[in-house]
Amino acid sequence: MCRFRVDHTRYIDFKAYRMLRDFVTERGKMIPRRISGNCAKHQRMLSTAVKRARVMALLGFTHR
Q1: Would you list the domain boundaries of the chain?
Q2: DSSP for 8-35, written as a single string
Q3: Which of 6, 54, 55, 62 shows the greatest Cβ crowding within 10 Å of its Cβ?
Q4: With b meaning 16 or more CB within 10 Å and e meaning fewer, what string describes 1-25?
Q5: 28-59 burial, b if ≥16 CB within 10 A, otherwise e?
């Protein structure tokens, strides 16, 4: 079940980096849709938010 459909989320904000950390592995890779359980629409929004958070230095590109 999509976590964002249950919460009725319309937009995934890149500034919510604590929530985005749940969808990134300890190595810095994004968790795929089949493992996270997100629908395609929200997985695309999630990947865009993670990429924006990385550019704004809220999330790291790699693990130290």
Answers
A1: 3-55
A2: T-S---TT-HHHHGGGB-TTSPBPPHHH
A3: 54
A4: ebbbeeeeeeebebeebeebeebbe
A5: eeebebeeeebeeebbebbeebbebbbeeebb
So what's the pLDDT on residue 12? 95
Fold of 3-55: 30s Ribosomal Protein S18 (4.10.640)
62 three-state secondary structure: coil
Q: Does pLDDT of 60 surpass 80?
A: yes
pLDDT tens per residue across span 3-44:
999 999 999 999 999 999 999 998 989 999 999 999 999 999
Contact by Cβ (8 Å): 60, 27: no
